[in-house]
Amino acid sequence: MTVVLAIDAGTTSVRTIAFDDTGRIIGSAQREFTQHFPTPGRVEHDAAEIWDAVQATLGEVAGGLDEPPASIGVTNQRETVVAWSRRSSEPLHRAIVWQDRRTAARCAELEEAGHLPLVRERTGLVLDPYFSGSKLEWMLREGGVPVSGDLALGTIDSWIIWNLTGGTVHATDATNAGRTMLFDIGSLRWDPDLCAMFGVPEGSLPDVRASSGSFGATGSGAACGAGIPIAGVAGDQHAALFGQAAFSPGDAKNTYGTGSFVLMNVGPDVPPPADGLLTTVGWLLDTPQGPVATYALEGAIFVTGAAVQWLRDGLQIIDEAPQLEGLAAQCESTGGVYLVPAFAGLGSPHWDPYARGTIVGLTRGTGRPEIARAVVEAMAFQTRDVVEAMVAATGRPVRNLRVDGGACAMDSMLQLQADQLGVTVQRPKLQEATALGAAYLAGLATGVWPSLEAVAGHWELDFEAAPGGDRTSADNAYADWKRAVERSREWAAP
Question: What per-residue string of b and e applies to 279-303 under the rule 16 or more CB within 10 Å gives b?
């Protein structure tokens, strides 16, 4: 039996999962790490703590294997940035997390100065504090990180690769590079104009490599032992798209995690910018003819599972996340209540960093079940916002939506999602699509799987929700949702 390890460094925890060559999980370990909120709107991580979690989970899983793994894949929370010393391998500042909004004013300033068209054309992104470029600029200008030849800058994958290889490889892949606002997704190179605009020294950034290819090998300090090839790297949402075997244009997936991320495969050519959406590198594969990119449209929804955590920890409406579906089922409808979970602003297709969470339609009869149901419905409504924007941009209907992430365990939510979209929603038997995608990318590079067709053959259906015939009720509810969204817009604008 051949084994591939996947390190999944998420927003709140690190997991290492061992997959056999049929894509079956044969071992796993998980460690949470601390979330730091120094002031409102700021979110930070201790990069050293993340590495400790990698080592702990990697050692636990590798220690249970009968033989060394064939390769390692890495997938990670995107846009979160780390600055560290090449000499000491010590972080120079807390990692600034993708949810952090401290650079909202700076992004607005750059947009007012006319830089948005350049950013859209070369990166496929928008000027928003979600992305890495303004975070790196803040570290260098405001955070006291010194610019020198000793400085290394990167996303979480780069930090993990650096440490896995004992400080010998400073690299990333095209999917993570493409989320920085510093990378030209057409030429697949760091962009000197954008680096200059944000004051980020290009020499401090990692080498950009194919998502399935060579990232060096583990050093003697790695908990899994030395000499294991690191052969697959992708940002978490790209890895999930790959793990869902969405290999044809028009294939789409949604991951219901801390946020929700809808990606649609649009093929090998960079599409023109689409209103409200991001264009991103889906993955970059090494082939005998050279690197070949697959591109995707993406809708990034900032709050999904985070709203469930808010119900649990903030309002204490539920004790555990799995209780949400049962509580929501205690009422037949919300009674006209809509919750817009814009706790960190609104992402696609609105891109309003000043939006804030809103509950509308409250009456004296509103109780815990109605609020719980409104959180579930918001998951489906936000996804419809994005999918409708994708259909408008491409002129191509979504054939079906493959789903993963914690909230996809709720059959009732998936049925609601199918009714809202008017398309079939499919949940696979193995829902660890993010880690599985990283493993597939690593295994493709090391011969564990010979082709994309072999990978696709392992996808198996667990649950399918087909849309109801009458869309009137769904459309009416969606129209009211859009009214609620408008009330959340620009609430915190200066």
Answer: bbbbbbbbeeeeeebbbbbbbbbbb
Residue 183 near residue 131, CB atoms below 8 Å = no
Residue 493 clears pLDDT 80, i.e. is over it: no
Segment 220-234, tens digit of pLDDT: 999 999 999 999 999
* Mean pLDDT computed over every residue of the chain: 93
Residue 173 lies in a domain: yes
Task: Identify the CATH number of the domain in which residue 198 sits.
Answer: 3.30.420.40
Give the range of the structural domain holding residue 97, as residue numbers without chain letter: 3-239
**What is the bridge-based pairing of β-strands 13-20 and 3-9?**
antiparallel
Cα(272)–Cα(263) distance, rounded to whole angstroms? 16
Last residue of a domain, one of 182, 205, 239: 239
Strand 400-404, strand 252-256: pairing: parallel
- CA–CA distance, 420 with 468 (Å, rounded to integer): 9
What single DSSP character describes residue 112? H
DSSP 299-319: EEES-SHHHHHIIIIIS-S-S
pLDDT tens for each residue of 138-159: 999 999 999 999 999 999 999 9
Which amino acid appears at position 485 of this protein?
V
Indicate the pTM of the whole model: 0.88
